[in-house]
């Protein structure tokens, strides 16, 4: 596996966004405002529900977050696609954390269920990513995972079959 820690604070995540954590040309997180987490509290390559790796992360919700003003005026809701993107970001982060090289790309998702909303009065999102497959070969580096997002402990998003690949190009 790697020698990286199993938890990361915001400064660590910003280093990853700048390409300083896993090295140039390897997995990166986006910079704010598209960075959809504030900390990773646990990560592994052999844990989780299926024993193939997992990530747990948190995102602090503040009423002044950029998306509340524009989605929707007078009825502020975090776009569901941003929660999905956070799950994709964490899936790619896990591949880089494993020491696998290449830039991360979301390839798709099997199923998405949105059963709740993130409004400005929420305090924290908790992401859980559980790998069902992690493959590194000469031709392919890819993770397949299921994920959930909880808002203040309430399950609001469920996804299955997320796919993220690392590519040298």
- If you compute it from the alpha carbons, what radius of gyration comes out, rounded to the nearest whole angstrom? 15 Å
Number of domains: 1
Distance between the termini: 24 Å
Shape: globular
Q: What's the total number of strands?
A: 7
Overall SS class: alpha+beta
**CATH first level: which class?**
Alpha Beta
Could you name the ranges where pLDDT drops below 50 across 5 or more consecutive residues? Answer: none
Mean pLDDT: 96
User: Largest beta sheet, briefly?
Assistant: 7 strands, antiparallel
Number of helices: 3
Write down the secondary-structure element order.
Answer: HEEHHEEEEE
| Helix percentage range | 10-25%
Secondary-structure arrangement, i.e. CATH architecture: Roll
The CATH homologous superfamily is named: Hotdog Thioesterase
Question: How much of the sequence is in beta strands?
Answer: 35-45%
In the CATH hierarchy, the third-tier topology is known as: Thiol Ester Dehydrase, Chain A
